[in-house]
Predict the 3D structure of the following.
Amino acid sequence: MGSSLTMFISLIATSGVFTVFLCVYAYLKRAEMPGARTFMLYTGAQAIYIFSVAFEMAARSLGEVMGWTAVQYVGMAPAPALGLIVVLEYIGKAVPRRLSAALFVIPAISVVMVATNGFHHLFYKSVAFYPGDPMPVTEIAIGPFYILHGIFTFGSMLAGVVLLLRRWRHTKKAYRIQLATLIVGQFMPMAGAFAYLVGLIPYGADPVPLILCVTSAMYIWAILSTRMLTIVPIAKESIFESMGDGVIVLDNAARLIDFNGAARRMLPGLGPAMIGLTLDEAWNVLSGADFPAARLADGLQEEVMWRATGGEPFYYQIRSSVVRGRVGGAIGSLLMLIDVTEQRRLQDQLQQLAYHDGLTKLLNRTAFIHRAKERLAAAKANGASASIVLFDIDHFKRINDTYGHETGDCAIRHVAAVVKRQLGADALFARYGGEEFVLCLPASPLAEAAETAERIRAALAAEPLRADGLAIAVTASFGAAEARPAGEPLQALLKQADLALYEAKRAGRNRVRLHEPAAALNA
């Protein structure tokens, strides 16, 4: 074996060692390296290819050459597809399983075709040693599938280079050394393969294994100096699409120009057909109304309600920010939709617990006193009268003792339901405590309050409680007091109504009694 051949084989073997190092490195760093599995397969395939070339160069018979060529294609055939997938994963593009499988169809066929070439000669029409060459290089006549394999190989490598070049402008300077290394690592083998295919290499020798020695050294340098492949940039569109919050992008004319998947899920109906519509036009299509938040300003934070098709409301906090171009001028704006539905529902539940009675869902005593004071103050300011009516269920203890506390609760809910049907929209109705209820009737003098109380009393008497197949009579006694325009305080009115209520009970229950100021003075 000549010194030139020995040197050539040694260089190829060195290239294989570098490539194995990269494969082992990817294995050791697999927990922190995105796409480590693909990179291991890629470098492993290259190592098989490189070492097979070295053994082929050392072969002394055509049979040995063809044997090592078959092994060589086990690594060489899938390497371009694996390299393309490495590039796709680096730039953050998802690789569907079907696409991944499709990329290996031609490589798999190529491996089989080379191994069985002696039976069909579709890959190589003929193979022979170059006569008189200083190195054992074969002369081949290519078949149709060799051309197809070459097209696939060159196309895969070219696609990887193009994808990386397109990423250059969008890559921060800190990552450009990594990107440049990957571009060169894809381009140099592609250029070498092209030169080999068109016969530009002396003696027909394959230059790619030697080129891989250079590219592998570059990868090792980039890995050690820039932590290439362990720290990789995340594509902006990947960040945009994977955000949990909805994002809508508008131009300076408030026209919709983009949105992410989260916004599409939050606003069913939002789709590509709306691109170019103004925000108000798009919102009209979605909801039948203009966009409900104030005009967009940097830092806008406002809550909007979105009602889904089924009628269930959702609440989104809208945050707006200006998008600025390279020279600092505003070129558009971002609307971020943050789902606050759960927080809003929790607030509503807490408010319900704080201000409403759990059994009847009416206002509780605390909420009633707060709101009744406001109503009385408004009536005083307008020089109008207002009335307070207190009432409780007659013989409620007897209902509990006879039918049980569960039926007693049903009686309380029954009274609340009957009373609500008798009231106008301006009445303030609350459960005052136990079996006792209270009404605030704004703009109602005592006579009108008496009529309202009597109507409620008659409705209760006429509508017994239906429970466990029984009709249980549920009546109530009422006491009413009037707030004169002079403005009696609420506590005084409640005390007066309570006195009238006890008068109704002493008179036999199931009746209405009024607190008469004159009568109280005479008493």
User: Anything to note?
Assistant: DSSP finds 20 helices and 14 strands in the chain. The first strand starts at residue 124 and ends at 129.
